[in-house]
Design brief:
The radius of gyration is 23 Å and the shape is elongated. The chain contains three helices and two strands; from the N terminus they run H-H-E-E-H. 68% of the residues lie in helices and 4% in strands. It has one domain. A two-stranded antiparallel sheet has the order 1-2.
Length: 93
């Protein structure tokens, strides 16, 4: 959770810097520098998205299924359904 907050702060700082560069286009950098700034910002955004996805997959509250990720509340409902069903392998005597 802390990692995601740190990465989102880095993305916010990068976007603010990129915005200030775009507002001062006539005064400062060249076209090549602007392209590199955009590439670096997109790299920060993509790494933040990857980190969020990895955190979501590795969390104990979410269950990965082929159709996507279950939300924690849906996962809790699935666990409750499994607990309420009788065990099929137990013999009734």
């Amino acid at each position: 959770m802390v990692k995601i907050k740190v990465v989102s702060s880095i993305v916010a700082i990068s976007s603010i810097h990129l915005l200030t560069v775009f507002l001062n286009l006539q005064n400062s950098s060249t076209r090549e520098q602007n392209i590199w700034l955009v590439i670096m910002h997109l790299t920060f955004v993509l790494s933040a998205l990857c980190l969020c996805i990895m955190d979501r997959i590795s969390s104990n509250d979410a269950e990965f299924i082929p159709g996507g990720l279950l939300s924690p509340s849906m996962n809790q409902n699935k666990k409750a359904e499994k607990l309420s069903e009788p065990d099929k392998h137990q013999r009734k005597t």
